[in-house]
Input
Amino acid sequence: MSVTAVTGSASGIGAAVCQQLREAGHTVIGIDRQHAEVIADLSSSAGRVHAAEQVIALSKGKLDGLVCCAGLGVTAPSSSLVVSVNYFGSTQLIDLLQPVLAKGNKPAITIIGSVAASQQAEQPHPMVELMLNNDEQEARKTADELGHPHIAYAASKYALTVHCRRLAVTTGSTGVRLNIVAPGAVETPLHEASKNDPRFGEAVRNFIAPIGRNGQPSEIADAVSFLQSSQASFVHGSVIYVDGGMDAMIRNGSL
Output
């Protein structure tokens, strides 16, 4: 029986992923700030170390899967918190858990990115390079000085996608597959908070995918379940958009 750790497991996409993986026979180790097997705050390095230690103990040093769903949006208390949770909360945890994943049975990692990362593709904000250089302190400082949480969100998801694509080149030889799912707007508590935000709510509500509706957490979980399964055994280093056509709309159908 495979053992998979899932961050952000208590609600939204993370909860849907946990449900599907359990139904598929996985033993799931949920990681969240509450209502999870591992209670941890991924906004700090100490919290990530604690989470990794608990996962290693619960999995007895052999982990078959990792799904990083934890993330913050534009309604987060600060832009720096968005950077720490969305980028470093995933990248440091991957680093810490790679040794036990390498011991797993057909191990796979899936990261929840975002279609918003496309907004940074042509001209990334300087904080992207700071994240990629693993400089959390300066990346947080730059994010707060900028004061635009929507840019911090897009930049964090872009940097996360770039990091994981680069990492996939080296993890392939260890037998650990790594892929990214990029959702569009999904009906989660995080998205609901964005829709109700007095600053950004109207723009969020008006940003509708070509398919004519927002996604459901289970639809994102479907893609994650596929990537974590043996059916995706040759899928590695890929970004899979599950966004109702948003990426095609944003980039005018270009590659």
Observations:
- The beta strands are 3-7, 27-32, 38-39, 65-68, 108-112, 177-183, 239-242.
- Residues 120 and 204 are 18 Å apart (CA to CA).
- The chain has one domain: 3-243.
- The chain has a mean pLDDT of 92.
